[in-house]
Fold:
Amino acid sequence: MARAKVEKTRTKSYMKTREYIDGNTVRREQVAVPVPKQEPRKSNPNRQKSIEFQRRLAEERKKSNPYTIKQKLVVASSVSIVAIASIFYLLSESSVANNMNQLKTMQKQYNQLVIDNDALENDIVSGIDLQQIYDIATGELGMVYPGKDQVRSYEKTEGDYVRQYDKIPTE
Structure:
């Protein structure tokens, strides 16, 4: 007797099944059974009407315009408004970027000027000899330091600054 075996082999990602017969039996021929021809269906009058209705509806859809002129104008104007707004936005962004670049270059120039100014001020201050000034003032010009009775100090509590022509208090 022949026995039937089922062999399972793996291919890619699914299992494929193959059946075969093991043994010395001869296979029998199988005769193809003729399939009877189907008679054409008699058309249903309701179905015929619905087909005509669908055909007419499709023709009307082709003829009719899906959008009215007003709708087309609204869409076109909204697209143009968005395009113009995006152009103005890009222009303003580029001007902001340009101004930022100018600001950076001006800040670099300012920092360089501050460094140069500090260097000049240090040169001026280092060039001043206070002892030489004292010698010229006392020796050549005849100046003297004021005495203790000549200097008067006072506090002004009304404001943070002193006016030049304000009256000096006596005591």
